[in-house]
Amino acid sequence: MSDHADHHPFQAHHFDDMDQQFDAGKLGMWLFLATEVLFFSGMFVAYTIFRVNHPEVFVNAHHYLDKWLGAFNTVVLLASSLSVAWGVRCAQLDNRKGLVACLVFTLGCAGLFMGVKAVEYTLKFYEGVFWAGDYAPPAVGSHPDLTVAYATVNNIAIGTAVVGGLLIAGGFFSGLGKQMRGWVLLSLGVAVASVALGIVGAQGIQSIEPHLESAQNSLKSALGFAVETTEHGEHGGTHDGEHDASHQKASHDEGEGHDTEENEEGTESAIAADNSPAVDEDLEPFAGQPIMVPGADRIDPSKIELAIPTSNERRYEGIFFSIYYAMTGVHALHILGGIGVIVWITGRSALGQFSHAYFGPVEYVGLYWHLVDLIWIFLFPLLYLIH
């Protein structure tokens, strides 16, 4: 009876002490995170294979993504990772108010992230930028009317703001004293309302993007880097342009006088590949060799070369966005799962259930959240910053 009285109220009966319980729980969390790494590694392998085989397609396709929104989300998740780590420290120091504040801030950051993703996904769907065979983007250089898309995201913002406000109000009316329900409603309301704030913030970033691009180009020029201008697949820097020009000139000098044409019964036309743009990677083994077209007249090489990247992009850019939606979509599901667990931990923290003697669940959730942040740190450059 005395032994039972000495036990911590949250100590499970099958552990000798709280330290053993904490170590066992942490080991279990690390094993779970290892399975998560294996889960995401399959998608990273698919990304690597297709990018190695079709790098030019990935370079073209990534221009449909907004790097400034991706950068904003990266900063948001880094801030949330800092706050959850700070929350663990507050639990170790018996600082209940600090712990609750850190967890609520983390939930707000999670809502901001989801709001930005809602804007990105909605705009892509209205532009026709889907996955695989459903990929049907606007023509290069065109600017489709996205009035309906922005109206949709504004409606989402209004809806999440109203729902979040109602949840926060419900939390206060339920009582925040010793009521778990009140704190759960309050923290969940903060996360939902932050989605609306993320949508508004994303549109604000899009409105100042020309200034951000100008500042970036000015900084690059000041540091001596080549300035790159991009727009939905039309890309190229000054250095790349000079390299291509010199390469084409060298090809022309080397292949001068090699054009041949044979016209006999059962004629074949041979067209040399000199003075022409770089061919598609799949056709690279044939570069510089005559292209034999049975029974045909002489063909304009420029028409052949212009047709190659168009068909290649349509064929493979859909695969890029299949990978994009798979990786970012699964990551977003992990964000939603993290929101649910942090809401539960916030309620328990507000009731004073964690202290220096028992803070394991806070640290376990923190480790999970760090992994979610770490995965995004890889996704951002691999998807948004391709060169």
Can you describe this structure?
- The protein is mainly α and 387 residues long.
- 70% of the residues lie in helices and 2% in strands.
- The chain is built from 11 helices and 2 strands.
Topology:
Layout: H1 2-6, H2 18-53, H3 55-61, H4 67-92, H5 96-127, H6 147-174, H7 180-207, H8 209-223, H9 238-254, E1 268-271, E2 291-294, H10 301-350, H11 360-384
Antiparallel strand pairs: 1-2
Q: What is the gist of this entry?
A:
This protein is mostly helical and 387 residues long. It is built from 11 helices and 2 strands.
| Average pLDDT rating | 80
Count of discrete alpha- or pi-helical segments spanning 4 or more residues: 11
The helix fraction, in percent, is 55-70%
Question: N-to-C terminal Cα separation, in Å?
Answer: 68 Å
The profile of the biggest β sheet is: 2 strands, antiparallel
Number of strands: 2
Can you tell me the overall shape? globular
* Estimated radius of gyration: 28 Å
- Structural class by secondary-structure content: mainly alpha
Helix and strand pattern: HHHHHHHHHEEHH
Strands of the widest sheet, in order across it, are: 1-2
Low-confidence stretches are: 230-280, 282-287, 289-297, 299-311
As a percent range, the share of strand residues is under 5%
